[in-house]
Amino acid sequence: MRPLIVAANWKMNTTPADAAALAGIIAAASDHPDVIRVICPPFLSLAAVRDAVAGTGIEVGAQNVHQELAGAYTGETSAPMLAGLATWVILGHSERRRDAGETDALVNRKLARALDSGLRPIVCVGELLADRDAGRAEEVVTGQVRACLAGIDPDALAAAGLVVAYEPVWAIGTGRNARGADAAAMADAIRRVVAEMATPSLAESLPVLYGGSVTAANAAEFFGEPAVDGARVGGASLKRDEMAGIVASASLTAAARLAASAG
Ligand code: PGA
Helix, strand, coil shares of the chain as percentages rounded to 5? Predict the structure, then answer.
């Protein structure tokens, strides 16, 4: 049975002091041990969030990592630098693809570095609106998965607990979410590619999250899809009540899945 995961991506928001306060408030308001909760604050707030959530069960993630281990890369952060600060990392977010020119080939290199450093990766994929309108959404997303995972040892992906986030670009920060059924269809397509490229067992155990304008009001539509294992939350993850509602909804699904698997 796959776990339910709610991963907050705070993007370029919060100072370290704000981040510590917000993380503490969210931890208290979303205490559901059957949901894996991850907060991904800006790099500068990682230490503050780590300290604020110590003992709460919340895990901490970075929003990006460099593809090299060290060297003359001004302003960058490498995977080994995250030791003791973060255990998760978001790779290939569409805002980095858009603003920093990240390609699937680059995400592939970053993924290798993350695995070397023992970070749990959330690899992001998602189509543009033009792709969806042209009926190419699945082709684009499965192509991204193939390129991001190319050449990576399936055993290393399994050991690291690879997570894929399906985040249609047109749904991110727009208030226009995908439909649950579309997210589920894409999750199935992603697992088909992973089964083919790696192993059927990795595909079966792979958590696929949906991201894009998830709120407490619409989260259940996604969690109600057996193929979808949680959410990546941006804007709403900066609000206590939204996070409390989203995690509570994930917890209901986790309980229902447990009951179903128990027969
Ligand atoms: P959003 O962002 O929830 O604000 O749409 C989602 C994301 O970028 O992960």
Answer: 50, 15, 35
Q: Which of 142, 170, 166, 139 is nearest to 227 (CA)?
A: 166
CA dihedral 107, 110, 114, 117 (to 10 degrees): 170
| Of the options 3.40.50.1370, 2.60.40.10, 3.50.50.60, 3.20.20.70, the CATH number for the domain spanning 4-262 | 3.20.20.70
Residues in a beta bridge with 5: 36, 230
Residues 62/96, Cβ–Cβ less than 8 Å = no
- Test site for ligand 1: of 5, 6, 9, most ligand atoms within 8 A of the Cβ: 9
The CA-CA-CA angle for residues 203, 100, 115, to 5°, reads: 35
Given the residues 59, 127, 138, 167, select the one marked as catalytic: 167
Mean pLDDT of 238-263: 96
Q: Which residue's CA lies nearest to atom 6 of ligand 1? A: 234
In this predicted structure, the answer to whether residue 263 has a pLDDT above a threshold of 90 is: no
pLDDT at 7: 98
In this structure, are residues 75 and 66 in contact, taking their beta carbons and an 8 Å threshold?
A: no
Strand partners, 40: 9
pLDDT digits (tens, 9 = 90+) for 147-178: 999 999 999 999 999 999 999 999 998 988 89
